[in-house]
Amino acid sequence: MKRLRSLLVLSSLLLSALYSQQYTVKFATVAPEGSTWMNVMKEYDAAIRKESGGKLGFRIYAGATQGDEKVVLRKIRAGQIHSGGFTGVAMGEIAPMVRILDSPFLLRNYPEVDFLYQQFDKEFQKAFEEAGYVLLGWTEVGFVHVFTNTPIRKPDDLKGIKMWTWEGDPIAEVSFQALGINPIPLSLDNVLTSLQTGLIDAFYTSPYAATVLQWYTRVKYMVDAPLADAAGAVLISKKYFETLPADLQEILIRNGRTYLSKLTLQSREDNKTAIVEMKKRGITVLQVQEQDLRQYIEVGARARRMLVGKMYSEDFLNRVEKQLADFRKNTKEVP
Fold first, then answer.
1. What gap in Å lies between CA 271 and CA 37, rounded to an integer?
2. What are the residues whose beta carbons fall under 8 Å from the beta carbon of 278, sequence distance 6 or more?
3. Which domain, by its residues, includes 285?
4. Is residue 5 part of a domain?
5. What is the per-residue pLDDT across 193-222, written as a single tens digit (0 to 9) for each?
6. 205 - beta bridge partners?
7. Band of residue 11 on the pLDDT scale cut at 50, 70, 90
8. What's the domain count of the chain?
9. What pTM, to 2 d.p., does this model score?
10. What pLDDT is stored for residue 333 in this prediction?
11. What are phi and psi of 141, to 5 degrees?
12. Beta carbons within 10 angstroms of residue 282's beta carbon
């Protein structure tokens, strides 16, 4: 009898929770279960459920179960999903100017990354909103490195390798074009198989992503000089967002800033740890000499100019580069 009463109470609580949740944000991501990205998203979900008294929560679809980022975008536009975790390619389809964050050899350290986000955050948010999305928070993937089966010490060494590029990514296409490489475009879910079959023998991603996706197991080297800092963001359909009461909108936005900032910081630590672990497992990290690094930086500057009129205006690029130049100058003056 006591057990029956307990079951009835439990059932009542579950039903109460079910009916009290009035708003369910359907969220999709390619990030796999068990990754830091998913762990923090679940913390974010728990926080908004608690603060809203159970009225608001996410339904999370992880590991590309709803398709890759472009498919998720189509589903958001169709109203099947409300929110997604996106990296550069998808963000570029929504607000092309945001891809400046991913441009090659623009950013060299995390203080510069943080500065750029702070300076242009309002412009990026406006671009997202004009395209029908609300920014819940940035989820920086981290500095992207080139991984290969051939030693790469200077830009000319890249010629002749079978480099993967994310299918439909204009930033990667132009970056490798400036380096004299004809990459092989593939979707994310084809990369590991293509490394195994030899269709490609090089790729670019963050160290943590390389370990989570197991891509690093098919290569021998990582180039120390980062190609770019990969941006990420959690976005929600503006149309759906505006159906939420104002108090729930505020809870969603405020907690998004808190937990997704936490995710960015944790991702930076994960990337450091991933490099240590990959070294233990046989990956050789190739150092880039100063004169070769200068050549990479010059290539990056050319590539950014090639994207003017396609992803962003010349005025916007000039403002970004000037702000960074001033920041570097002022930072050097600080003891």
1. 12
2. 207, 210, 211, 216, 222
3. 19-333
4. no
5. 999 999 999 999 999 999 999 999 999 999
6. 145
7. low
8. 1
9. 0.87
10. 45
11. -80, -35
12. 10
Residue 169, domain member (yes or no): yes
Give mean pLDDT, residues 287-310. Answer: 91
Element (H, E) at 249: helix 246-280
Would you say residue 319 lies in a domain? yes
| Assigned domain for 199 exists | yes
Model pLDDT, residue 15? 47
Distance CA 186, CA 163 (A): 10
Find tokens 């092989």 and name the residue.
184
Confidence of residue 189 (pLDDT cuts 50, 70, 90): confident
DSSP 26: E
**Predicted confidence (pLDDT) per residue in 52-96, tens digit:** 999 999 999 999 999 999 999 999 999 999 999 999 889 999 999
The token duo for 312 is 């962003």
User: Sign of torsion, CA 77 33 188 103?
Assistant: positive
Lookup: tokens for 74: 């189509």
CATH of the domain at 151: 3.40.190.170
Residue 102 to residue 32: CA distance in whole angstroms: 22
Residue 164, both tokens:
């993967």
- State the residue for tokens 């149309």: 239
